[in-house]
Design a protein that fits this description.
This protein has a single domain (22-125), classed as Fumarate reductase/succinate dehydrogenase, transmembrane subunit (3 helical TM bundles of succinate and fumarate reductases, Up-down Bundle). It is built from five helices and no strands. The protein has helices at 6-10, 15-47, 52-60, 62-90, 94-125.
Length: 129
């Protein structure tokens, strides 16, 4: 028998401890993704019927490289948090939930790094020697 009150046992558990933080992070990344996604789609439309070299030149411009890296970082961060919420809500067996969360984190980090390194490679190779 514990001498702790039910309130003392419940403190720090559930949404009361980190739910608001998670909500605000998803909200901020959502708001940041709106202009970045509009810019990205507008850029893709502009490059749609141009040759491959035009796309390389586009990515090689410093401001476009920065916006692409921001889009990748914010996009994968938002994707990771959103999928984390889905996993928390729909996977109830603890071992499967832990495995899914680890795979989610691993996937987002690896794919984000691959995308970012691809953009940086084009940017660095396009710098005149």
């Amino acid at each position: 028998m514990s001498i702790r009150t039910p309130l003392a046992r419940a403190r720090g558990l559930g949404a009361a401890s980190e739910g608001a933080d998670h909500f605000w992070k998803k909200t901020v990344t959502s708001v940041a993704l709106v202009p970045l996604a509009v810019w990205f789609i507008w850029s893709l439309i502009g490059l749609a019927w141009k040759p491959y070299e035009a796309a390389i030149d586009f990515v090689a411009e410093p401001q476009n490289t920065i916006f692409l890296l921001l889009f990748i970082a914010v996009g994968f961060a938002h994707f990771r948090m959103g999928l984390h919420s889905v996993i928390d809500d729909y996977i109830h067996d603890r071992p499967y939930k832990i495995a899914a969360l680890i795979l989610n984190d691993f996937f987002c980090v690896v794919m984000g790094m691959i995308c970012a390194l691809s953009v940086l490679k084009v940017f660095i190779l396009a710098i005149p020697a």
